[in-house]
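Support reply, case 0932

Customer input (verbatim):
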Amino acid sequence: MKADEYRAARGRLKRRFVTVALLSAVVNLLMLTGPMFMLQVYDRVLSSSSIATLQGLFAIVVVLFIFLGLYDFLRTRMLSRASFAFDQDVGKETFSLWLQAGAERAKIMGRPMSDLAVVRGFVGGTGIIGFFDLPWVPFYLGIVFIIHPWLGILAIAGACIVTLLALLNQALTRTSIAKAMSMDSAETSFVEQSHRAADSVIPLGMAPTLREHWDKMHRSGLAVGQVGNDRGEAFTTSSKALRLLLQSALLGLGGYLAVQQQISAGMIVAASIIAGRALAPIDQVIGQWRGVVRAREADRRLLATFDAIKPSPDKMALPDPIGAISVQNVVKYPPNSEGDPDAKPILNGVSFELPAGATLGIIGPSAGGKTTLAKLLVAGWLPDQGAVRLDGASLSQWNPELLGKHIGYLPQNLDLLAGSIRDNISRFLPEAVDEDVVKAARLAGAHEMILALPEGYATQIGYATRPLSGGQMQRIGLARALFGAPKLVVLDEPNSNLDADGDRALALSVRAMAEQGATVIVIAHRPSAIAAVEKLIVLRGGQIADFGPKEQVIQRMAAPGKTAPAKPELQEPATS
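Our regenerated output:
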């Protein structure tokens, strides 16, 4: 989503606020029902002792309060629907942004999904209603002034003091609340990471130190937040006490004016109630100020996040690929290293070509750039220089959602999602056919393993977790990569958790995909993973050290004195 589209969604939300404001106008007018009824009872009914008048007035009051409840319900419902519509407008794109940021390891402000939830909760909550009632404060104060100028002056003075308290509350709590929110976000990330890594950190005896580290973060965040809370609570209670004092002061002044026969007894009660109603929105905003700040900061971060997105041109739907790959002088720097003059490229000048249906193995020492190359081949990352082309078109020209249907990718660090095994293999496609799911599982050598589970393909994994071994998860991940007969398959360390049977199944899968016309690229440390490939690349220090038929490359590796051919087959001249 572009920033303009997010602003358009905010604009639609504001237009819905106009309707809420109109409903609030009716509600605030009907709020005069109570004090006007009291005025009439004291000044008209008690003086005339007319029961008929009292009955008539009460009937009118009942009707007006019914309408008050109806319009108050409508504006609350309108805000609830507005928050829902806003979420529908931006929810999917916010989730896509969060996914893309995770894929590119991009630094973004906050956590967009959490920020969206904060904004949605504020718009659909009760705290925002005070803002729609605030414009009516002068109206109520004007009525009090009409009853008697002295009462109006006293009410205006009280409103000014309460408003000053609100402004001071904002100024003195804004910094601490914003800092506490930032620290809370960091703490949440640490807790989630600790939870995911529990099976590895507990055996290392890290639980006590992690607990102490979390406690330190937690206490620091609470301490900073408590500063804002303490100040906010002081302002909230002060505002409430002042409002109650003002009502009593109005009653006292009204009593004095009534004794002087300048106002009636009914006007005393009416002025007190109306003045209390005038100060209620200010008091409500002060009480909900923490939520107001959270929503404002969340909206600011969302807007900044969408502003940071570089708009991409509309991409034409290209024909289904056949799988020919061309990597042309690719250079890739570490994520978030823009502007760093000391940054060294992970890949530097990598070039090679593969025809459709070829099988390639990529080997080399750790930190040589193999996983980075895998991500570039499947458009998980884009190169900083050079191009990766599929059937002649750079991957940046493809629509990512359409391209993904033709790519199979098994990452080195596999995370299966919460859902059934069938959901994960089918990539959560609602229209997926069971036959295609089983076909992918058979191709990955995972069908019998899945059937051996108590619930088979319906077995739940992820957060509704059933413990699976690393090898089982890797086979399921391989089946997901092979689902839909993709034309380009990239497998990063596909046998890191496999046993001998799994290695054989992997080799059969590579051959089967190649026979179906897919281009298969296998990245591995263990030789068994590249048993079925025809070509081999040796990647060292982010550059291609050797490339050619597998047997020839292995022979050259075994005989260091021999040099690689100047123009290896299927490769443009490359520097090493």
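We compared this against your earlier run and they match. Two observations from our side: DSSP finds 19 helices and twelve strands in the chain. The CA atoms of residues 544 and 576 lie 6 Å apart. Please reopen the case if you see a mismatch on your end.
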